[in-house]
Amino acid sequence: MEIFTRLRGMKDILSEEIEIWKKIESVFIETSELFGFKEIRTPILENKYLFERGIGSNTDIVMKEMYEFKDKKGREVALRPEGTASVVRAYIENRVYSTKKIARFYYYGPMFRYDRPQKGRYRQFYQFGIEIFGGKSPFFDFETIQVLDFSFKKLRIENFVFYINSLGCKTCKKVYIEEIKKYFRERVNNLCEDCRRRIEKNPLRVFDCKNSMCKTELKNIPSILDFLCEECKNHFDVLIELLSKFNINYKIAPHLVRGLDYYTKTVFEVFVEKEDIAIAGGGRYDDLVHDMGGPDIPAVGFAAGIDRIVPLVNQKNIKKIETIYFIILGEKAKIKGLEIIRKMIEEKIGIEIDYEERNLKEHLSIANKLGKKWCIILGENEIEKKVLILKNMEDGSQIELKEDTMIEKIKEIVKC
Ligand SMILES: [Zn+2]
Ligand SMILES: [Zn+2]
């Protein structure tokens, strides 16, 4: 018989790890809701051209990594490779701007990229993100950074730092791009083949090249921060001032450009230097709503990579729901056992039970393997005496609980 396996680059998340996932999700959701964000759920499957328009047709994501196919009617569709394009589409399509001056959304779910799988990188991966529409003040940029900062601190992620840069607006970006084209043209022989092609089409992409020759050439490149127009410079300065004032751990990173085309002004990444990974990134995209057919509305947001955050969260910081291992001995005890279990569930006392016929020794060994702290034992003897046995698996001690007061007693002793 053929045994099915996961598709390449896909992963199963089993019960040992899922508690960490749920913790991260709940921290992000709670923090966002405290800042007034509301959830938005968009479809995973969209018109493929939405992403070409929203992300940029000459980005790696759209050119190489999209899960795209034709549906039964021949429509060209794609699994979303990121969240922003869909949220912007929904914002425009549902005319949210007509009722809300400022709209705050958060989203969470799987994204898909047909990328080469490597450590911490899957073809189905999970992102939590927020978007704020309608605000052009740098205080909104600061708010998105605060949501991340509060969340990572609550998750006790260590040594994370915000890398901050500005890409300017259409006007100053254009001046800068001409400047670096000139710079690269003078050094074209020192660049890798891919980057030679990038110079004219999309020179900012050279910044993300992993080739060591290209990296060397980037060391002395002019900084975009020296080319910002007055408005963009002011925007950047206010944000930096806020970060300093509220002790956010940041570094100015003039080479940070991010892989997506839509950013204007602020861009940032959250980096864990010890692990050499980015766990979140975002920025401002003041032209995107307009470029996707909506009104001229500024926006800013971030996306955090949950798959990469999971290994950084210490399992010890996670409170698990403790369940008591319930042992029923003998056929006659089964119905009585079920009656007690129903009462326990109603009182929110968690239980785990194995209904198969086993002797006490076997049951206790199973409970041990599961790492249970407490067992309840109910046999025919106990039924006759109208009691239950509560056993402490750590020190082996046990006590008898009377049937009429056992729920209160269990709550008191087990503290669940
Ligand atoms: Zn500008
Ligand atoms: Zn290169």
Key structural traits:
BirA Bifunctional Protein, domain 2; 416 residues; 3 domains; alpha+beta; Rossmann fold; five-stranded mixed beta sheet; 15 helices
Question: How would you characterize the overall build of this protein?
Answer:
38% of the residues lie in helices and 22% in strands. The longest helix is centred in the first third of the chain and has 20 residues, at 15-34. Strand 12 (324-328), helix 12 (333-346) and strand 13 (351-353) form a beta-alpha-beta unit. Strands 1-5-6-11-10-9-7-8 form an 8-stranded mixed beta sheet. It has 416 residues and is α+β, with helices and mostly antiparallel strands. The chain contains 15 helices and 16 strands. It has 3 domains: 15-169 and 229-316, 2-Layer Sandwich (BirA Bifunctional Protein, domain 2); 178-224, no CATH class; 321-414, 3-Layer(aba) Sandwich (Rossmann fold), CATH 3.40.50. Bound molecules: zinc ion (ZN) (2 copies).
Q: Secondary-structure blueprint of this entry?
A:
Blueprint (H helix, E strand, L loop, with lengths): L14 H20 L3 E2 L5 E3 H8 L4 H5 L3 E3 L5 E4 L4 H10 L9 E10 L11 E10 L4 H17 L5 E7 L3 H17 L6 H9 L10 H7 L11 H16 L4 E3 L11 E9 L4 E8 L3 H4 L7 E7 H4 L14 E5 L4 H14 L4 E3 L6 H10 L4 E5 L1 H6 L1 E6 L5 E5 L3 H9 L2
Parallel strand pairs: 1-5, 7-8, 12-13, 12-14
Antiparallel strand pairs: 2-4, 3-4, 5-6, 6-11, 7-9, 9-10, 10-11, 14-15, 15-16
The protein binds zinc ion (ZN) (2 copies).
